[in-house]
Design goal:
Elements lengths: L11 H9 L2 E5 L11 H12 L5 H8 L3 H11 L4 H10 L9 H9 L8 E4 L5 H9 L2 H6 L1 E3 L13 E4 L20 H10 L2 H12 L1 E5 L6 H14 L8 E6 L4 H10 L3 E5 L8 H15 L1 H13 L8 H11 L6 H7 L4 H5 L1 H5 L3 H13 L5 H11 L4 H13 L5 H17 L3 H13 L4 H11 L2 E5 L19 E5 L17 H24 L9 H4 L17 H17 L1 H13 L3 H10 L8 H9 L3 H6 L1 H11 L5 H14 L16 H18 L6 H13 L28 H5 L2 H11 L5 H4 L1 H8 L1 H9 L8 H10 L9 H15 L3 H6 L1 H9 L1 H4 L7 H9 L13 H6 L2 H18 L6 H12 L3 H12 L1 H7 L1 H13 L3 H12 L5 H17 L4 H20 L9 H10 L2 H16 L6 H16 L9 H12 L5 H8 L14 H13 L1 H12 L10 H11 L7 H7 L6
């Protein structure tokens, strides 16, 4: 918390301690400056006052800033040693009109829990008492002053006022006498060492108060004595409080902090201000005093100042301050809500808000929404929080809506639907599985039937508009605000629930009733959400079939519920016919398409309706039922019309003949002249009359009409196809595979022409025809290519064919190999224009020439490289790794081809061709995009390149790797992330390897690869101590210190993986001889390098040591910090039936306790087996209290 732009950044923990009255300021001479001298000036003034000169010994101590030793030496050589004390007392007398502004501020800050001032000072002067005299009275100041060995014990009732640990001077105005002073080295030794009363006082003080040093430098004598005493105690006593020091940065914060950090003090640095170097300190302390005295006022000011602006314009310091201001103060969130405009603050403060519980979070959000019901940003924020939906959130929004209704009706509806959606979103899948278990076990209770249909049925879902659909400023309908839909979960575990006891005769009717009620309720919600309107019904359109059908696959929404209802229908009719008819009658009475379709489906069941009843009901149904639902219409006809009476059939056909020709008569013709009304009318009549004609003879009039339609629409002159009954038809998901029939059936000379024509097709499979043909018959495709002259117009066809050659490297048929060789020779003679156009695929063929057994033309590489150098740069973006770019580039492929050619020469025992040396050098120094890619490929195989020519590697390639530019950094990344080095290469490139490791920001496997160079070098130094390596253990350790955290974690992973590669019976020796020493040699010992990720990897490393597990635990335990994850993985110790815990129970318990002991709050399913193994192997440990605490983390599944 920074209260001045140049002032110290006060930790929030310190501010909290100040508010609790748990902080004591320990004040030095700087507090009284410049009125009184500091220790250095005091020494100079004492010498002047006494008329003495410093001896060489005294001057040596003076130059070392050991002023207490200077005065000690002086007092020893004076005849009257008291002269030193008297001279110092004279120099430190309080001025006639003292300025106590600094002391006033500190007295406001340094107070106990009940507000009494408590200051500890090593100053002899009484300026603090003078400040108390002004603020209280002279008597109070006198009473509250204590000095020397009469100081009160910290924490006691008397521990108040001004405590002079080094003594106090006389103050006649306050009637205070002088006490023994601690000024010389001998007196310091007495107070802190021989008698030790000052040391005991400070130790007790540190156990009950946080200490803030002000007015000192790190080299001041009081600081050195005090903190050396405390540091010794801190190693043995864990309850010592923190020590802070207020100090100037002097323009170099790092250098200023170092001396304090060496004394285990947290420095709070301020920057000096021109003309008033200490102004920022005292201004900050005054601001801190104002905060401590009026915390609520200051909290409110901070909140208002910070949240009135957007999160994007705030600093980390601002956010930290805001979190402190709001922390543990739910009453201030109303203040936050009234001033917050940026929704991002809720994400920024998510952890703080969550600490108050779900109910408070919901209230905060709802209150903020209510301040701007018609604000689209607030609504979109609410949508984001729907994912964490809860009943509390729903209740809070409804409550605000009731108390403060939106002015706009559309917005009110949107918010009410959102509140409803929030309640539905709180659905818990785990409860569904528990429900299934209860339903299978029985008996089934009524509430579980309700839970079942609720789980199957859809719920309202609200999503933000697509990115290119910003919400309207003045919405006229809900879709202007957000995307509303009805969605259901994938409830596969409930698919066959009707076969469980829930589907028994005594339950099935209630299930049907509850399902129908749920359907009706959710349809009304959908209507409220404007998903059902006069013209459009999204719910109906989203259900291809109300019965189980392939077209329902991948559909959600209302599909599961409607299929569940139709599946339960025949079972319910068998169990209770009259009750089922009553439910079906309810469907017909509902004003929804889906319920109408369910009623129509019920007409197909003989148990519910006679054939005449079904056909009569269909004939007299409303317009939507009769004309809109072809699938259900045809299903009724096919199931019932054959058994129906002639009269019933006649009435049905008559309605078709009367109403059919009038369909769409009121619709206007399209402007484009397409007679869609006539076509749609013909199709509606055709599908219905055709379905009827399948089972009965149509009347002549109907037959004539059907014939006319078939004549008019020749595409309808057929039987009904199933897809005719659906408004949309899905053919399923399938891979796109080029269609080659037309190409294959043509003559070779015609195939390219056909391929060109197919490429213009609207069918993607036609467009992919040539590509697929090249894959299916590459020899035939080559024949087609050869039938045309090698010209620029056919280059695209050649490119496609050439690109498939590398993927056919395993084809060994003589014909195929002949064709490739012939193609290479042909293209080797091609014009430069052709080579340039085909350089990419040709380079990849060169790269795979060995596998393809190709004899490349002598000038092949040179021509391709010349063409490659003309290629433009490729913008890959920041997401593509450097080496991924290389392997997909022409330059990278040609580099690989050249290196392979050189390797073949060496494998055959030949000297490397001089021309290839020249090519390698030419490629490396090329300042083109292809040159950059080729250099990266050479860096990937640096050890090989170095072995071929260390001159080329060092003189030409190394400068590019060492360059301080983007390419240099990318090359160093390839160097360390994709390589392993022999000793000679490591020695020559050690500095760049270390730099690459320091620069790497990779994670996971790539980070481990980078770290492996450090580990490999040090392991090798222990394995083969006589072999010189390029990276020493000291360099490896320093590099790990400077590298990213992921690199350090990667180093541990590499050690674990390599250790586990050893056979089980060799792991102990590998740990003892290699990996244990390597860890001790390279791992930083600073506590600052401990982390949760490090701790987890150290845990795994210990378990990889095999029978050396005890020794590994002993060595690694200091580096295991408490795990911080919510879910803990102890599998490395639990595997193989907790074998290590059985063999080494004490070590296993120590390791698990270090990782999972307090304050760990995670849970794990691994720990029970480990603890059981420990207890079984060593029964005495069963009563160990660590075991009891660790068992609290166990989770059983």
């Amino acid at each position: 918390m920074r209260l001045h732009h140049l002032g110290p950044d006060f930790p929030e923990a310190l501010v909290d301690e100040l508010l609790e009255g748990n902080v004591v300021f320990l004040c030095g001479a700087g507090v009284s400056a410049p009125q009184l001298p500091n220790f250095r000036d005091l020494v100079l003034n004492v010498y002047n006052r006494l008329g003495e000169e410093r001896t060489p010994a005294e001057d040596h101590a003076f130059q070392a800033s050991r002023y207490e030793e200077v005065l000690g030496a002086l007092s020893r050589r004076l005849v009257r040693s008291e002269d030193v004390i008297d001279a110092a007392a004279a120099e430190l007398q309080v001025p006639a009109n003292p300025d106590t502004a600094h002391h006033d501020v500190i007295l406001r800050l340094s107070r106990d829990q009940v507000g009494r001032p408590i200051i500890v000072t090593t100053n002899f002067d009484t300026l603090f008492e003078r400040s108390l005299m002004v603020s209280h009275s002279a008597a109070f100041a006198t009473q509250e002053s204590a000095a020397g060995q009469d100081i009160p014990a910290p924490g006691s009732a008397r521990f108040t006022g001004v405590v002079h640990t080094h003594g106090r001077l006389t103050d006649d105005e306050l009637n205070l006498s002088q006490t023994e002073l601690v000024l010389t080295s001998a007196q310091y030794g007495e107070a802190y060492l021989r008698a030790g009363w000052a040391a005991r006082f400070l130790f007790d003080l540190m156990r009950c108060r946080t200490l803030v040093l002000v007015g000192y430098t790190a080299n001041d004598a009081p600081v050195r004595y005090i903190l050396n005493v405390l540091e010794g105690d801190r190693e043995r006593f864990t309850d010592l409080r923190r020590v802070y020091a207020l100090s100037s940065s002097n323009g170099d914060p790092q250098a200023a902090a170092a001396p304090w950090q060496a004394l285990a003090v947290e420095p709070l640095l301020f920057d000096p201000e021109g003309g008033n170097p200490y102004g920022p300190l005292w201004s900050s302390l005054e601001g801190l005093a104002n905060l401590v005295e009026n915390p609520d006022v200051r909290r409110r000011e901070m909140i208002a100042a910070i949240v009135s602006g957007p999160v994007s314009e705030t600093t980390d310091h601002d956010i930290r301050t805001l979190k402190w201001a709001l922390g543990a103060r739910a009453d201030l969130f109303e203040h936050f809500i009234t001033r917050c405009e940026d929704a991002a603050w809720f994400d920024t403060l998510a952890v703080v808000i969550r600490a108050f519980g779900e109910r408070a979070r919901a209230w905060m959000l709802a209150r903020w929404f209510a301040r701007g019901w018609d604000d689209k940003v607030r609504y979109l924020t609410a949508i984001k929080h729907l994912g964490r939906g809860s009943q509390e959130f729903s209740d809070a929004v409804f409550r605000e809506l009731d108390q403060n209704r939106p002015q706009d009706a559309i917005w009110e509806k949107a918010w009410r639907l959102l509140a409803e959606a929030a309640a539905a979103a709180s659905h818990d899948s785990l409860r569904d599985y528990q429900l299934r278990h209860r339903l299978n076990r029985g008996p089934v209770v009524e509430s579980d039937l309700g839970h079942l249909v609720n789980a199957i049925g859809p719920r309202l879902t609200i999503e933000a508009p697509f990115r290119d659909e910003d919400p309207s400023e003045h919405p006229n309908q809900l879709s202007d605000i957000a995307r509303f839909s009805m969605e259901s979960e994938h409830q596969e575990f409930l698919r066959d629930v009707l076969a469980s006891p829930a589907g028994n005769a005594e339950n099935i009717l209630r299930l049907l009733e509850r399902g129908s009620q749920r359907l009706s309720c959710q349809l009304r919600t959908a209507r409220d959400a404007e998903l059902i309107g006069q013209v459009r019904d999204v719910t109906d359109f989203g259900v291809p079939s109300v019965v189980n059908h392939q077209q329902n696959q991948h559909r959600r929404g209302f599909v599961p519920l409607t299929v569940f209802i139709t599946s339960a229908l025949p079972m319910a009719a068998q169990a209770n016919l009259e009750g089922t008819k009553r439910v079906v009658g309810g469907w017909r009475a509902e004003p929804f398409n889906l319920t109408t379709r369910l009623w129509m489906h019920a007409l197909t069941h003989q148990a519910l309706f006679t054939a005449d009843e079904a056909i009569e009901a269909l004939a007299t149904s409303n317009e939507a039922a009769f004309w809109s639902f072809a699938l259900e219409f045809v299903a009724i006809v096919r199931a019932r019309i054959a058994q129906a009476s002639g009269e019933a059939v006649e009435r049905l056909v008559r309605r078709l003949l009367v109403e059919g020709p009038q369909r769409y008569a009121d619709r206007e013709q399209n402007a484009d002249g397409i007679d869609w009304q006539d076509r749609a009318r013909d199709r509606d009549i055709w599908v219905r009359l055709t379905a009827i004609s399948e089972h009965v003879v149509l009347p002549q009039e109907a037959e004539t009409l059907l014939h006319e339609i078939r004549e008019r629409r020749t595409y309808l002159s057929r039987e009904i196809d199933e897809r005719d009954l659906f408004r949309t038809w899905s053919s399923g998901v399938r891979a796109v595979r080029g269609r080659t029939a037309q190409i294959v059936s043509a003559q070779p000379s015609e195939r390219l022409t056909i391929a060109d024509r197919l490429e213009e097709s609207s069918d993607i499979e036609d467009r992919e025809g040539w590509v697929e043909y090249c894959r299916e018959d590459p020899v035939g495709a080559y024949a087609a290519l050869r039938s045309h002259p090698l010209e620029i117009g056919v280059v695209a066809r050649w490119a496609t064919w050439l690109e498939i050659i590398p993927s056919r490297a395993n084809m060994t048929s003589p014909e195929w190999l002949r064709v490739i060789q012939e193609a290479v020779e042909l293209l080797g003679e091609a014009d430069d224009e052709i080579v340039i156009a085909l350089v990419g695929p040709l380079a990849r063929i060169a790269e795979h020439s060995r596998q393809l057994q190709l004899a490349l033309p002598a000038n092949w590489w040179d021509r391709l490289w010349q063409a490659a150098e003309g290629e433009p740069d490729v913008d890959w973006g920041d997401d593509v790794e450097t080496y991924d770019r290389v392997i997909n580039s022409t330059g990278g492929s040609l580099a690989e081809a050249l290196l392979q050619a050189i390797s073949s020469q060496r494998e055959n025992g030949d000297d490397v061709n001089a021309a290839d040396f020249q090519r390698l050098q030419r490629m490396i120094v090329s300042m083109t995009y292809s040159g950059e890619m080729a250099r990266a490929a050479c860096v990937r195989y640096l050890s090989f390149v170095f072995s071929v020519s260390n001159e080329i590697a060092l003189d030409h390639l190394r400068p590019f790797i060492a360059a301080d530019n983007d390419e240099g950094r990318r090359l160093r990344g390839v160097l360390v992330e994709y390589n392993s080095f022999v000793a000679d290469t490591e020695i020559s490139f050690a500095d760049l390897i270390l730099q690459g490791v320091r620069e790497s920001r990779q994670k996971d496997v790539s980070a481990a690869n980078a770290a492996s160079h450090l580990v490999r070098a040090v392991v090798a130094s222990f394995d083969e101590p006589n072999v010189v390596r390029g990276i020493s253990p000291q360099q490896a350790r320093q590099t790990l210190r400077e590298a990213a955290a992921d690199i350090r974690v990667g180093a541990l992973k590499i050690m674990t993986n390599w250790l586990e590669e050893n056979p089980d019976d060799e792991r102990a020796a590998a740990w003892t001889d290699l990996y244990g020493p390597t860890f001790q040699a390279i791992w930083p010992r600073d506590r600052s390098y401990l982390s949760n990720d490090v701790s987890k990897e150290v845990f795994s490393l210990a378990t990889a040591a095999g029978t050396a597990f005890e020794a590994a635990v002993e060595a690694l335990l200091p580096y295991v910090s408490t795990f911080e994850d919510d879910w803990l993985s102890l599998h490395d110790l639990e595997r193989n039936n907790a074998e290590l815990a059985t063999r080494f129970p004490v070590a296993a318990l120590r390791l698990v306790w270090a990782a999972c002991g307090p304050p760990c709050k995670g849970r794990t399913s691994d720990i029970a087996a480990i603890l059981d193994a420990v207890a079984a192997a060593n029964p005495a440990l069963a009563v160990d209290r660590r075991m009891h605490k660790l068992r609290l983390l166990a989770v059983s599944h």
